[in-house]
Amino acid sequence: MNSSGLSSYPSNFINLQVPGILFTPICPHSLSFRPLILPEHVTLRVQVPFNSRGHAWASFDGKDRRQLAPGDALVVSMAPCPVPTACQVDSTSDFLRSIHDGLHWNLRKTQSFEGPRDL
Questions:
Q1: Which N-terminal residues, if any, form the signal peptide (predicted)?
Q2: Which of 63, 81, 109, 117 has its CA 20 to 30 A from that of 32?
């Protein structure tokens, strides 16, 4: 999922220089589930149990929804070659600037005082 989608869910942001997988469940059926940050060498396998009473659904970046039947599995691993990105300054500065500009992260709006001036 991209970072714009993650801003709607309780998750983390990861700098592009951190090699790893961010696994964030959306609408999990357990309140104890937290996002996972996994090392780059891990292969994650999520399988619908054979004795499941129903089907599961998987969607990718909010599109292309697929139904998973009992026994079906979704396997996720790092791609062998990273996707190259272009930086304006450097990857860390660009990452922090995009969060600040896009999400108004750590930005406090100046408030006006509407009360009485003299006490």
A1: none
A2: 63
Q: Are residues 46 and 31 in contact, defined by beta-carbon separation less than 8 angstroms?
A: no
- Where do the H-state alpha helices sit in 1-119? 3-6, 91-103
Distances (CA, A) of 112 to 107, 109, 115, 116: 16, 10, 9, 12
Residue keyed to tokens 């659904």: 57
Question: What residues does 75 pair with on adjacent strands?
Answer: 45
Which pLDDT tens digits describe the chain residue by residue (119 residues)? 444 444 455 566 777 778 888 887 777 676 677 788 889 999 989 899 999 988 888 887 778 888 999 999 989 898 888 776 777 777 777 777 777 777 776 777 777 777 676 65
What sign has the CA pseudo-torsion 96, 98, 99, 105?
Answer: positive
